[in-house]
Amino acid sequence: MLKEFREFALKGNMVDLAIGIIIGAAFSGLVNSIVSDIVMPVIGVVTGGVDFSNKFVALSSNVTATSLAAAREQGAVLAYGNFLTLAINFTIVAFVLFMVVKLMNRLKRREEAKPTPAAAVPAEQKLLEEIRDILARESGLRPGQVPGAGL
Question: Do 49 and 123 sit in the same domain of this protein?
């Protein structure tokens, strides 16, 4: 049973999947940083200094705080700023994945467009063709022409 598990765990697809998950987690951190450290401050400047990370609507009259973390402790809040940040994260990830797939498809099309080399002729068949051509020349025929053909 241990041998079967090892074979299952070490299959190429499983290793590829594990690598993809690890790279995806690192990519997620990168996208979060791009959104929170680059995109959202620019959007904040364009919208007049609005900080989206603390934008919320209080759903309870008990909520009097001005920061999202404090407001969540006081009661129910609708954190639309956080939602906007996550929506931008999703858009960036989707766009990057779109570009990666587009590039891979382009490379695949180039690979398919390359001419495929002719299939190698087996040595035995090549030898027989050479013998046929020698016999044809000795008989006064063109190479490749079979004696008695076309009569």
Answer: no
